[in-house]
Each structure stands twice: as C-alpha cells, then as structure tokens.
C-alpha cells in the first residue's frame, strides 16, 4: 500500500509561483511513477505532469500542453517526495491538485491517464487576477 500526502497549495496572484509537495510512503520511491492531476469545479480531472519510475538511473517527465514551460515536476529520493513547481500562474490554473502513484515502469500513455492506483487527498491552488 502506498500513502501519499500533498502540501503546498494556497492563494496566489496571477503571475506568481507555488511549489506543491507529495510525500510518498509504503514503497521504494524509485519504483514509483508519479503524476499530478487537477480538477476545477464542474470540470473533469485532467493530467498536469508525470515523472516515471527510475529506469537505468533516469526518470522521464511528461507535461500537459497547457502547463509546459511553466510547471516543473521533480523527484527527491532522499525525501521520498515529488514536487510540482508552478510558475507564471494563471487564473485558469485554479483547481484542486492531486498527487497519484503507480508502481513500476509505465508507458507515457499510462502516465498521462488518470488510471493511477494510489491518490492523495488533494491540495487547493487558487490564482486571483
């Protein structure tokens, strides 16, 4: 069983930055593929970013087109934590952000779909104009 705990959400003005954290436990961190998704009121949950499990000492990253160049996903094995750095925030980035995890190597298509097994409780990000 994998447990995920998110933190770092908040209220920020447009153009500002936030860093979301997701601490994972219950499984070797390098075995986990992890993703961030978001859900705005009245909308479906959508993919934001993902980072693959370690393969040949490398993790690959993937981003939704809407956040590419503004958001950065990274992993810290020493802290068993994945981060999502949110820069140049826009009001349309307002949503509850969820961390999710899968065990093992996965295709890019799997990593960008919401079919993750483990989910965090979510953290609210609100961007004002």
Q: Summary?
A:
With 129 residues, this protein is mainly beta. Helix content is 3%, strand content 49%.
Describe the structure.
The strands form 2 sheets. Strands 2, 4, 5, 6, 9, 10 and 11 form a 7-stranded mixed beta sheet that branches. Strands 1-3-8-7 form a 4-stranded antiparallel beta sheet, with no helix packed on it. Helix content is 3%, strand content 49%. The model has no long low-confidence stretch (mean pLDDT 95). The chain has one helix at 108-111, and strands at residues 3-7, 10-13, 18-25, 32-39, 46-51, 61-63, 71-76, 81-86, 95-103, 118-119, 123-128. Strand 7 and strand 8 form a beta hairpin. The chain is built from 1 helix and 11 strands; from the N terminus they run βββββββββαββ.
Set out the fold topology:
Blueprint: E1 3-7, E2 10-13, E3 18-25, E4 32-39, E5 46-51, E6 61-63, E7 71-76, E8 81-86, E9 95-103, H1 108-111, E10 118-119, E11 123-128
Parallel strand pairs: 2-11
Antiparallel strand pairs: 1-3, 3-8, 4-5, 4-9, 5-6, 7-8, 9-10, 9-11
